[in-house]
Amino acid sequence: MRDGSGQVLEDLIADELALRVGTHRPVAPGTVVVTGAGALRASNNVRHIIHVAAVQGEPGAGFQPVRDIGWCVTNALVQATALAEADPAVRSILFPLLGTGMAGAAIRPTARTMVLATLDYLIQQPDTPLRVVSFLAYTEGERAVFTEVLRDLPVIPATESGR
After folding, report:
1. Smallest Cα–Cα separation from 114: which of 135, 143, 128?
2. Do 88 and 126 contact (CB within 8 A), yes or no?
3. Rounded to whole angstroms, how far apart are CA atoms 29 and 55?
4. Domain map of the chain by residue range?
5. pLDDT digit string, tens, across residues 86-104
6. Which of 15, 16, 25, 66 suits 156 as a labelling partner, its CA being 20 to 30 A distant?
7. Which fold has domain 12-151?
8. b/e per residue, 75-95, with b = 16+ CB within 10 A?
């Protein structure tokens, strides 16, 4: 909920996340927690938000990306698959560039790791009900990096299911 100037007055997603995490802080790298989508449900048809612990705080050093961003991607995809199996309306997932914000991970290797982890998961789980995996680029530079990473991938033959 926001006030007239756009300031957040009540953050339903943050409140739900805090409730679900409880006193188990800090959470282990790669931990996944699912919350509702708040106002994103009405504005963008988002059904769930899958939060994954892709950064960790270090006293005096601030936030750092976790060592294995690919593990974070895999854990989020496992959770998204479970949600899709329970709800036929869930068929996609959108990933931001994990760990590249406050934690400062390098964009190109992070994007590559995320794409490769996604491909590995989809190859290993050909029966997942997920049909679309997207990567969010906030800037034209990030979009260019994802385009380059995807262009440079080796060609992977389609499976018998046509994926």
Report:
1. 135
2. no
3. 7
4. 12-151
5. 999 999 999 999 999 888 8
6. 66
7. Leucine Aminopeptidase, subunit E; domain 1 (3.40.220)
8. bbbebbbebbeeeeebeebeb
